Amino acid sequence: MTNQPTEPNVSAIRDAARPPVADRAAFQTELDRLRVREKAHTREGDAIAAARRRLPMVEVDPRTPLIGADGPVPLNDIFDGRSQLIAYFHMWHTGRPAAEQCEGCTFNTSHVTELAYLHSRDVSYAVFCEGPYEEASRYRDFMGYPVPWYSVPQDSVDRLIADRYFGMVVSYLRDGDKVYETYWNSGRGNELMAPSYGLLDLTVYGRQEFWEDSPEGWPQRWGSQGGQFRLDDGRPAAQRSRIRAGRDDDLGTMPDGWTACSCSLHTGPPAAATN
Questions:
Q1: Is the whole-model pTM more than 0.85?
Q2: 72, 128, 214, 269: which has the fewest C-beta neighbours closer than 10 Å?
Q3: Is 126 buried (19+), middle (13-18) or exposed (0-12) by CB count in 10 A?
């Protein structure tokens, strides 16, 4: 078919260098050599996971309140009767439009849509958002996220973040009335949340980011400071389909008691969202 809409970077890929061509036998020989390393990588991942299961744990106040649709909810209740909980701590830029919200957290959260397999292992999942519930829940609705969503009130941040930062994934264990943190990670440690990266690693051109070790002539367009998750218009990439579908990205007015985000990304007045 012709005249189909294309995504950014398509022309760069179509004009890029190509791998050498080989017959099926030669291709399979090279792939078999690589497969030895892939299997070793898998086994090492299994060993790391085994070590992760043997880590000590730290007690967390089970009464730590979060804010849900019906108001305050203690951490213990977010397990929803299950013994384990995975929480993703979503960054938030208070008072900023949807187009300026965290591109990395949007990337991660947009991939988590089916919880049945976690639930079958007695594991719940929820997003703990940094900002006010009124704003953040509108973003959740705009993006169509199906997972449980809570805001972390300012008085609870220190108890849960503990000198770390939003943008991390945390695992918890509930034992009766007690709650323990068993693991956390952030940055590239969160890549397992987003299978898009794993799938891109299977392609000839990979993630197309500058840091990758790729042959000469391979397309490499993006850095690794957040721009790789945004479109040319500045929006987080996952927002494009929502805008095309006509969804409303208005996050409303900033709730009382909150101040607008003043991080280094937002030194000027809030920008108007554009389609």
A1: yes
A2: 269
A3: buried
